[in-house]
Amino acid sequence: MAGCRSWVFFYTVCAVSVFGANAEIKVSTPVGKLFTYELMRETFQNDFEPLSKLYAGRLYDDPMIFKCNRQNYPDLPEWLRFTQRQPYDNGFLYGTPTSAGKHIIEIYAVNKRSYETARHILVIRVTAQDMLPYQAEFFIKLREIERVLPSSVQDEIKQDLQKLWNTEALEIVNITNALDRGGRVPLPLAGHFEGVYVKVGSEEYFSDCLLRVLTPEHQKQCTAGARVKSPGGCNFCRIPSNCITWCKTELFDLKKQEPTPPAPTMGSGILEDGGVFDPPESPPSRDYFPDYIVTVIVPLILAIILCLLLAYIMYGRREGVAKRNARTNQIQLYHHYTIHNNTDELRNMAGNRGAPPPLSTLPMFNSRTLERAPPPRYDSPVPLIMAQHDPYCETLPRK
């Protein structure tokens, strides 16, 4: 009986591990307010290693990457964005819905250690709600989008903006990365951040501190590029990284509707009589012969001159074999011919190993008559081959 219970428990754990990977999470958010959903790595870690936790007691902290898309579509809805900086960081789905409806998001987590995959389904139900009439957008320079999306950081920023607005009825409408608004990528150094835009809204009208943004003096200072400090009594940021940039603060009053452009007047559909059509005169004739000379004739003449110059250098300035032989010393020329003949003789011997020894190996011989020469005498001119080994050859006269 105990064994049967253990097997039942084992099958239950397996079923949870299999069907839990396709868990369906349902959330609801109103139109016109910021939606944030954090993808916790710990949640998906439980899906990857459920048995090792129960039996082996192993606890893993694996790097993961998340892939999110709308069900049956390759991308997310136009109002929803996803960000994850590092595989060891949690991911965030965030955005502001613009219309009511239902969105089914598929979330895939890939374990970079074991390459396992887990799948969750997030059902976002967007309910209809009126937009907040008074909205303001602030730029926070010393923040990054991943560090602002957690709920604790949003509460800190919201508390500072409530003091600035002088009301507690304040809601965060949208948070946008500065890179998505045309900002530059910061240097990979400490103290350099991307920056974020935080948009909030309220039912109450703007405070006096916010209305100072619309004054001509403030706009003149921002246009001049001066560093504008917060107005007196309007600095409510408790944390320096949450302080706003006043020159990039904008106010939006949605109650002031823009006047609609006038409707176009409908005519009869027939063009009015404008007189006789007078077509433009044809352009004056142009002489293209100078252009032809510059484009074709001049390059052709230059090419012919270069060809004649090259032909003169290659053929007219050559020395010639007969002229070169006439200017060469006879004993040197004879030595040159001897080297060529000996080379040909050695090549012929390489093809036939039974050939007699070459004549060049004999003590002295005449290459023309193939006869041995008499022993040399010291009172006669020394041959070229002997002169190469004679230490007194330098004293002999040369022609």
What topology, given as strand order, has the largest sheet? 1-7-6-3
Structural class by SSE content: alpha+beta
State the share of residues found in helices, binned by percent: 25-40%
Compressed to H and E, one letter per element, the order equals HEEHHEEEEEEHHEEHHEHHHH
Outline = extended
Distance between the termini: 123 Å
- Number of helical elements: 11
Q: Runs with pLDDT <50, length 5+?
A: 8-13, 15-21, 378-399
Q: Measured on Cα atoms, how large is the radius of gyration?
A: 48 Å
Arithmetic mean pLDDT: 81
What characterizes the major β-sheet?
4 strands, mixed
Strand fraction band? 15-25%
Number of strands: 11
Describe the model:
It is a single chain. 31% of the residues lie in helices and 21% in strands. It is of the alpha+beta class and 399 residues long. The strands form 3 sheets. A 4-stranded mixed sheet has the order 1-7-6-3. It has a 4-stranded antiparallel sheet with strand order 9-10-8-11. The radius of gyration is 48 Å and the shape is extended. The relative contact order is 0.08.
Could you write a compact summary of the structure shown?
With 399 residues, this protein is of the alpha+beta class.
SSE topology sketch:
Blueprint: H1 2-19, E1 24-30, E2 35-39, H2 41-48, H3 50-56, E3 64-70, E4 80-83, E5 91-95, E6 101-111, E7 117-127, E8 134-140, H4 145-148, H5 151-165, E9 170-177, E10 196-202, H6 208-211, H7 216-224, E11 244-253, H8 289-316, H9 321-326, H10 330-351, H11 384-387
Parallel strand pairs: 1-7
Antiparallel strand pairs: 2-5, 3-6, 4-5, 6-7, 8-10, 8-11, 9-10
